[in-house]
# Entry
Amino acid sequence: MFRFGQDIGIDLGTATVIAYVKGKGIVLREPSVVAVNSNTGEVLAVGEEARRMLGRTPGSIVATRPLRDGVISNYTVTEKMLKNFINKICGKFIFSPRIMICIPSQVTEVEKKAVIDAASQAGARKVYLIEEPIAAAIGAGIDISKPCGNMIVDIGGGTTDIAVISLGGSVVSTSLKVAGDKFDEYIIKYIKKKHNIIIGERTAEELKMNIGCVYPRIQDVEMDVRGRDLRDGLPKTITVRSSEMMEALEEPGRLIVDAVHSVLEKTPPELAADISDKGIYMTGGGSLLNGLDQLLKEKIGINVMIAQDAISCVALGTGKALDNLDVLDGRKK
# Structure
């Protein structure tokens, strides 16, 4: 059969954009950061190059994240970012690609339209939307077409999406604006309050990835970080321990546990029984936070598994869903 252009699946994440091309697998993994000249509106850098500029730009250059809490906060910049990534994937395409994009499970119609419009303006011939938990479940290798319950907790950069899936659709779902970015915010607040030091987003992220935890570690590890002392305004190096990180991240960890508990309370008994047997699947970069799976297991009382290649699950699921595009054609959401 003759195929127009490429079929692309995009996990349009608050922190990272991952793209999957049918037949090639994952072809792009870039931070969702754009550097713009504030005087002319010209895009100077996108992705990794722009991320290196965060917190280090002169007044005329703004390094910004155009997505916040899983939705588009700056439409124009998102469109330019998508255009840049699509050109990177396709080169100079003769036929526009069909694109499937992931969205959080609780977005509004206005937010959906913004995603469709941005992708269309960036060069897509047709745009399809898929809910993140469903894409994550497909990417984790779960057969969602069967009449049995599967619970997915997808923790990204901006949102945590929790859903109970059966027969290809979500039965009960919720979206929580507590995820990777919020973890960083809690770390910044904690370091400021306890050590009187201001640290940047990138330093907070390094702390989270290297020594962050929400469950006691076997060994208390430590890391040196540099920041600005609030008392004299000079740079200062301090040593932070993982036990302090556990204190800093206690609240966001509890909020995620409470949200999972709340979804389980609304789940029909038969599906709840299935979940109790099979366990809860965790996907997304945020699920790799040390001890989060153990915390969930202890508080909920159900086995918790982190999916293989958790960071790419949503993009892989979107890629697999591309196989059904010919069936979907003509039924744009």
User: Anything to note?
Assistant: DSSP finds twelve helices and 18 strands in the chain. The chain has a mean pLDDT of 89. Residues 138 and 306 are 14 Å apart (CA to CA).
